[in-house]
Amino acid sequence: MQIVVVESPAKAKTINKYLGPGYHVIASFGHVRDLPPKDGSVRPDDDFDMLWEVDSRAEGHLKEIAQAVKQADKLILATDPDREGEAISWHIAEELRRRKVLGDIDVKRVVFNEVTKGAVLDAMKNPRELNHELVEAYLARRALDYLVGFTLSPVLWRKLPGSKSAGRVQSVALRIICEREAEIEAFKAREYWSIEALFKTTAGDEFKARLTHLDGKKLDKFDLPDQATAEAAVAKIMAGAPFEVASVERKTVRRNPFSPFTTSTLQQEASRKIGLAASRTMRIAQKLYEGVNLGGETVGLITYMRTDGVALSNEAIASCRFYIDRVYGMKYLPETPRVYKSPAKNAQEAHEAIRPTDMDRRPQDVARYLDQDEQRLYELIWKRTLASQMESAVLDQVAVDISGARGGVTLRANGSVVVFDGFLALYQEDRDDPSEDEETGTRLPNMTEGQAVTRESVTPEQHFTQPPPRFSEASLVKRLEELGIGRPSTYASILQVLQDRKYVRLEKRRFIPEDRGRLVTAFLTSFFEHYFAYDFTALLEEQLDDISGGRIEWKKVLRDFWGAFSESIAGTKDLSITQVIDTLDAELGPHFFPANDNGHDPRVCPGCKAGRLGIRLGKFGAFIGCSNYPECRYTRRLGVDNGNGEHEGPKLLGSDPATGLPVTLRHGPYGQYVQLGDGNGNGNGNGAAPVEEQPKAKGKGKGKKKAPPKEKPKRASLPRGLSPADVTLEIAVGLLSLPRTVGMHPETSEPIVAGLGRFGPYLKHGDAYKSLRGDDDVLTIGLNRAVTLLAEPSKGGRRTQPGKTLGSHPADAAPITLHSGRYGPYIRHGKLLVSLPKGSEPDELTLDGAVALLAAKAEKGKTGKAEKPAAAKARKAKSKAAPEADESDTQEPANTAPKRPTRKRAAG
Fold first, then answer.
1. Which residues lie closer than 8 Å to 667 by C-beta, 6 or more apart?
2. Model pTM?
C-alpha cells in the first residue's frame, strides 16, 4: 500500500479516484505544526534553533497519517507545488520521524500543477526527493517574521500603548497606505482652465478640438490659471477666423494582449472587474484548483493559483491556438505562439501562469455547477488565458491641428478608431485609475491640409488638480509587487491582518489608515527606519530567493540580520516616553491639527484657552491633551479638529432649504449621523429648550407640572462607506429626506422606495426588500437600476418578486395583492394573509374571489379556533416589548423595568 498525503480533503477525494487501488490518499488539512507564539521559539544564541509544536487541531490528522504509514511500504508527499507546500511535506516527514513510524519506508515528493487525471498520474511516475533549499528558504522567512514580530511588538506595547503588533512585511504595507494619506492631506488643489471649440467642415461634419497654442506659444497645463486668462483666450479664438487645417498626422498602433494571470494580477483584476477582496479571490481560486463536481466527476478547473510565472505549457498554448482558429478564425491567430516573461522583481518562473486545465471547458459549460463568484472568476481566467494567445488589436490614431489666421491660436483634435479588434474581441483589462485607459472610438471626419473649417462655439472649462488616489486592494498589491515586497501568496493575508488589527479600514474599496495605524507607522519609521524601508525589505526578499536557489546559506542571512536588529532593539531601552511623544507630535501634528482658514489656532486648548494641545500617551493608548496638565485636564480622543475648535460637538453643515433649521453632523454611541434642528424642535441651536420654572411643591408628587414633551428631531445615520469628511449639506439633506420614492415599477405600477434601515440602505417594492451593496447609492439610484436589482436573485437563490395587485378592497380601498410564498401562493390585505385553496390557479383569481377569501378568513378569526399557545405567547411578548431604539439616536432608551430598592450603607 502506498500512502499519498495532500493538503485538503477535497483534493484527497479527487486524487483517490484517479489513483485507484493500491493507494490511500489522506489530507493533512494544511500545516501540521508551527512555531508556538511565545519567547524562545527561535533561539538566535543557539544558532537559530527552532522549536516546533504540533497544532492541537492537526494532532488528529497526524495520528491518522501515522497509523496509515505503519501499514504502508511507501509514503508519497503530494502537497502544493510551492515553498509552502514543500514546507508542509517536510514538517510531516520530520514529525513522523520524531514519532518513529517511518523506519525504512521510502519517502518521496511529487508535484502537479493541476488536479487532473493526466497531471496526477504523470507526477506519480516522476517522484523526487524533498527540495531542502526550498525548505531552508521557508525556514529563513519564518524565522525572520518571528524575530521581527516577537521582538518588536513588545517594544510597541511598552513605548506606544494601544498598539497591536508589528510585522516585517505587514508594517511596510501599512507605511505605504499611511504615506499616501499624508500626501493627500498635504495636497493643495490648483486651478487651471482648458478651452474646447466645436468646428464644422464644409461637408457638415462636426468635431471638437482643444486649444494647444496661444500667441504662437505652446500652452502648458497651468498657463490658463484663472477665468480671466481663459476668457481672454476665448476672445482670441473668437477673433481668429478664418480657420483651416494646418496639419494631419496619422499613425497605426498595435496593442498587444496581456499576459496570463499570476497570483497578484488575478487579485488585481478580480478586484477591479468583479469587486472581490484578495482573500475571497484566493479562496475561490483554491476551490477551482482542488476540484469541482461536474455532473458526477470531480475535476480541477484551473492550475495552481499561487504563482508569479506567466508562461504557459506547450500543451496549453496549442489548445488555445486550436480554439482561436476554430471559433474566431485565422486572422485572430498570430503566426507564432506568444511567449511571456514576468516583469516583477524576484519572480519565480518555476510554475505556469494561472490558466484553465482544459480550454474546451467554456465558462457557459460549467456555469450551472458554480456559484456566481466562482463562475465569474473562472470566466475571467478563461478569457485572459485565451486572449493572451490572440492577435494584437490595430488602432488608427489621427491628430489634426487647426490654426486661425489671427491671434496665433492652434487647436488640436484627436481621434482613435479600432481597425481590427484582435484580442479586444474577447478581453479588455480594467485599470484601477480610469485616467490610464486609452480612449477609442472617437472618429474624426476625413480632412486634408489647407482645408477650411468653420468655428461654431468655444467653451472654457474650469478644472482643479486632484490628489493622488487612495490605494485599493488592486493598486496596493500592484505597488507591493513593483517594490519586490512580500510574496504573491502572502498579499491577501497581509491586507486582512491590517484590517483585523484596526490599523486601516476599507471604504468604497479604498484603504484609509486609522489613527492607530498612523501612530504605529510614525513610531516605526522614526525609530526603526532602516528595517521598514522599502529597499531593505525588498533586499531581504532577494536574499530569500537566493536561499531557495542555493546561492546563499540560510543561517548567514539570519545572522547578518539579527546582529544589527537586536542592537537597534536594545537601543530603545533608554527611549523615554517624552521622546516618543515629541516625535509623534512632530510627525502627526499636521494630521491631527490641520491649519484652517478661519483664523482659529487648532492647537489652542478649548478648556483653559492658554495651553497647547498635543498627542499624549496613556495606559489605554494615545489621546489629545493639554500642555497645562494637571492644572487643565482637558482631553479628547484622537481625531481631527473640525475647524471650529471643537472635536466631539456638532458640526454645522448649513441650513435646510425647506425649513431653515440648522443641519448638523453629530457623533453618537452608534456612530456618525446628521440631524435637522437643535434637538428640541425650536431651531435655536443652543442645545437646550427654555423651560418655565415652577414652584416646588411641599408634598411628594403634588403641584409638579410636567413639561410638554419635546419634539424629537429628525435624524439619519451615515450609510456604511460614507466618510464623515465627505458629508456636505446636500448629502445631509438627502439623507434626512429618506425614504424617497425612486419611481413606479413598470410592471406593477407600485412605487419603489429607497431608504435607510438598521441593516443599511435598501429598496422596497410592495413587500419585497433588497439591500443596496457596492457602488449603488441610496440617494442617487435610478428607476432602471432599482428594477434590475429587485429582479436579481436574493442571497438564498430566490428572486425577490413583488406582489401582483388585484385591485382595491371595497371596504377601505386598500390594495389586495397576490404573492408567491415558500408554502404556496397567498393574498394579502393590510396585515391579513390568506393562502389560496389547494388546486386553485393564481392566474385565475379575481378581485371578487380574493375579497370572498378575505371575508371568510376574517369571519373564521372571530368565531373560529382558539389561538395556538405558541402564537399567543409570541403575541403577548410582542405587546409588552418596549419600542426599538433608533440606532441614530444619541439618548438611551427608557428603562421600563421596575427599579430595585437601593441599599444604603451605614456610616462607619
1. 648
2. 0.67
